[in-house]
Write a structure and sequence with these properties.
Number of helices: 8
Helix content: 25-40%
Strand content: 15-25%
Radius of gyration: 28 Å
Distance between the termini: 89 Å
Order of helices and strands: HHHHHEEEEHEHEHEEEEEEEE
Largest sheet: 7 strands, mixed
Number of domains: 2
Number of strands: 14
Strand order of the largest sheet: 5-14-10-6-9-8-7
Shape: elongated
Structural class: alpha+beta
């Protein structure tokens, strides 16, 4: 039986929040997650899954909004049906000022993604709309095919998510080479005798210079890229590039040699058992006294942000056996986080087995002078489509006494 309008009187419909409102909620939640990641006991795996879901939903909502806008313009032009009385339609493309098109505009973002994907294979399968073509031409005419703001933000969010160490160092975003000064020799204050001459002490500063080394990731993909929707393609590309680049950045922060790459915390100082390291004999086991001695070597001024960094295997092979509930509680847990004598533990498999660092990672200064760039091309030799992500990064420890090391003797 056909229902009339009056059959629906009194019915209440509980709809989801409007697109604009939901996008605002997503941005607010992403902002909250940035804070929650740094809190003690944060479930990083759950937050990682939530971020993935929010980014996918955000892309889907933006794509849906674009589709609705296109449909309404068709209605306004008489292409699809007749507009309802009082219906408000988006302005025609010809009426929109080209000044609204920037690398942050949605039209440029979808045009950039389509252009990137279309350039990766022979033949265009997803042509740009008139509005997207205008946006792409307007922006690239003055600035080149720059990565869209939203896509760049998504990549940075993912890189930080996959490389938590990046959020713990002092990260700069200064274009080109940067030089900054840190304390080197600082003389203590002295008691002054009234009316006596005060002689200035020769405090000294040292300069730290950061360059910009390339970190690249080349991703080949089959013709399946043609079948991906815009949101799905962007999510895949961002996640794939961010994960690989983040792994290399983490490696630089930890064990970078400083030769054509960043300088890691392993190069903070020359390790010496009398001043900044504890060495366990090759055939000996770690003891509680070794751990206490290592903690004692770190100056108290770094305690507020100090943490242990080691592999998961080292934690469970060397530190967990020290537990004796009747005498001590060396290793504690809060959620999925571990603590050694109250210092938080960051697990990273790049740290050698039976070795660990303790220190303030914020004394490591890094620089990422520009956003991650992405280019694409078709490789006829391998019949594959390739996407190249490139990040610029450098880092150096700035304080020689801010990191101490536990190491195992070679023989």
């Amino acid at each position: 039986m056909r229902k009339t309008t009056k059959d629906f009187i009194g019915l209440q419909f509980f709809a989801a929040p409007p697109t604009g409102e939901r996008l605002g909620q997503i941005e607010a939640r992403l902002s909250q997650i940035r804070t929650e990641m740094e809190q003690e006991g944060a479930d990083l795996e759950a937050l990682n899954n939530e971020v993935d879901g929010l980014l996918a939903e955000r892309s889907q909502l933006q794509q849906s909004a674009e589709t609705r806008s296109t449909l309404l313009r068709k209605i306004g032009n008489g292409t699809v049906g007749t507009p309802l009385p009082g219906m408000q339609l988006p302005a025609e493309p010809e009426q929109r000022s080209e000044s609204i098109y920037t690398i942050a505009s949605e039209e440029y973002r979808t045009a950039w993604i389509k252009n990137l994907r279309n350039n990766a294979y022979v033949g265009t399968v997803d042509p740009l709309t008139e509005v997207e073509q205008r946006a792409f031409t307007t922006v690239t005419g003055s600035a080149g095919a720059a990565i869209p703001t939203q896509t760049a933000n998504n990549i940075l969010e993912k890189v930080t998510q996959y490389a938590p160490l990046l959020g713990k160092i002092n990260l700069l975003r200064v274009p080109g080479m940067v030089t900054f000064a840190v304390e080197d020799v600082v003389n203590a204050a002295e008691k002054h005798t009234q009316n006596a001459t005060i002689t200035a002490k020769d405090d000294k500063l040292k300069s730290i210079t950061l360059s910009a080394y390339e970190i690249t990731k080349l991703i080949p993909i089959s013709k399946s890229v043609k079948l991906m929707s815009i949101p799905a393609f962007e999510t895949w590309l961002v996640d794939s590039l961010a994960r690989s680049i983040a792994n290399k950045i983490s490696e630089n922060i930890l064990i970078g040699t400083g030769s054509d790459e960043g300088t890691g915390i392993d190069k903070t100082a020359t390790w010496d058992q009398s001043t900044n390291s504890v060495q366990v004999g090759n055939s000996a086991n770690l003891t509680t006294q070794d751990v206490l001695k290592l903690i004692a070597l770190l100056p108290g001024g770094y305690d507020a942000r100090a943490e242990f960094i080691m592999s998961k295997k080292t934690l469970f092979t060397d530190f967990m056996p020290l537990q004796d509930k009747s005498k001590n509680d060396i290793v504690t847990m809060s959620g999925s986080n571990y603590y050694i004598f109250g210092y938080s533990v960051t697990l990273d498999e790049r740290v050698k087995l039976h070795e660990a660092y303790l220190g303030d990672l914020y004394t490591v200064v890094g620089n990422m002078p520009e956003d991650v760039t992405i280019t694409s091309a078709f490789d006829i030799d391998t019949n594959s489509y390739k996407f190249l992500g490139c990040a610029m990064f450098d880092c150096k420890p700035s304080m020689a006494d801010a990191i101490v090391k536990l190491e195992k003797a070679d023989a």
